[in-house]
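I hope you will forgive my troubling you with a question about protein structure. Here, with my thanks, is the record as I have it:
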Amino acid sequence: MTEVFLDNSFIGTVQDPKSFVDRLISQRRMGKIASTLNVIYNEALNQVFIEMSKGRAVRPLLVVKDGKPLLTERHIQQLEKNEITWSDLVKQGVIEYLDATEEENALVAFYEGELTSEHTHLEISPMDIVGLCTSLVPLGNYNHSVRLMQGSKNQKHAIGFYVTNYFVRMDMDVNLMHYPQVPLVHTLTHEISNFEKHPAGQNVVVAVMSYDGYNMEDAIILNRGSVDRGLGRSSYYRPVSSEELRYSGGLIDEIGIPDKDVKGYRSERDYRFLEEDGIVFPEAKVAEGDVIIGKASPPRFLSSLDEYNLTSNQKREASTALKHGEEGIVDMILLTENEEGNKLVQVRLRDLKIPEIGDKFTSRHGQKGVIGMIVPEEDVPFSASGMKPDIIFSPHGIPTRMTVAHVLEALAGKVGAMSGRFIDGTIFASEKEADLRKELLSLGFREDGTEVMYSGTTGKQYKARIFIGNMYYLRLKHLVSNKMHSRARGPIQLLTRQPTEGRAKEGGLRLGEMEKDTFVAHGASLLLKERFDSDKLMVPVCENCGMVAIHDARKNKYYCNVCGENVEINTVEMSYAFKLILDEFKSFGVYPKLKLKGKY
């Protein structure tokens, strides 16, 4: 007898497992049982598993019988005339959903021409094996699988035109491209997903060559003229908000320009952009430290009110100002109420982001790189017809990465640009490379996409022909202006006395374990000592008991808590974090004894 399990729970036994499974599948195809039921007979274990649990990934496939799909020409004609729908095909058993379990026993063909009597299913389209974002990568079947996934992910980071009503929205950290375009080489998914309504890139002319070493590794070189004409230009939007909070005792915040007697009053210069209502005016150019929304709050503790006069006006400053490194132009101001009925003020800042050295660009094939140089237009290499590339891409990115589609897209884009049409680059169903080469030849170009080019600086012809074509390039949201960060001295943490962490808090750049190892390897001990004294401290240590002693600054006397005054005490240089861990050991009841030695 064969055991039967439903969702991994034993429900009974059957005598003929194969006919039992076949009967279940035929009843599912007839619509008598749920289409989401999946069943498998495991011969090695002699067990039948039936799956009906929620959350399984299932995918649709065409049913094949005797080497022929059940989907006929008549079905396709009926679908085109809207006489039947997808769900009708599922009910008729022409299409069925398989999960990972049942797919173990299925033999699925890619194309109808590959079908044999052994095949059980046929792909609706070979494109089904990839997801939505991956199917947006053109000519994807020519790429290495890892690059295909990276190209899919890169498209999610691209700056584009995300919604049409962005003007009235208060979204967090949003980038908006100024001149987005639809790709010349597109796929079937671009049409299905209405990509022309939310494009995320631009068609550019790309030359594959080296240029003075400024595009080494993955770096790219941009044409200054293209940048000036709007290549990759975008705006960065960010909201800042403040609300009038209510406190116990009927006290409430007050949005407005704080009075001079308010505790923590800033300088008058900080409030210069505020109007009478305490809110910044639109189109004001604000920078770090400028107050955008003025606010005064009641004292934090009632004890700080005057003992005899509860109506005392000792308020504290609670304005919203721009943090370290922030700047922009006030784009929109929204006055509204939150759920509790408190006044809420939201200010949206806008910042123009023009491509600069360090900004990240990528093609749709995982060939990402940062700008290494922006070359003046007169110095950019040009072709015999006077065409200048917008981007110069390093040839070293192609061989090891095996992104053949990157090269093919440039060729196909060139054909599309010259013939004035879109090229179909759908994965597994794209236009043939041979046809594209023939068409390029008929348009008066070399069939391999290369051209004779001349140096922009000397005017001399290059000895090698340069591969040049049109590609769809994306600008990623990782902008150097949002990441650039440095500091000299600044705020420190209360507990460890080390610099704060993060760009927004004006933090330090961490020199970690591995960075320390590089200095050790170089023998740069003095540099290491200098880097590690962000929390340097001179600590008095008792020579007798090895505990941290005490320095009475008023009497200018040193004494030990354990041994008293008549002992030798020496000051030792250490990091505050080490002194802190000694104190924490003491709290455990561990005795951290320091044994001092002379330096020489």
In short: The chain has a mean pLDDT of 92. The longest helix spans residues 404-419. The chain has four domains: 2-124, 140-233+357-475, 235-353, 536-588. Residues 59 and 97 are 5 Å apart (CA to CA).
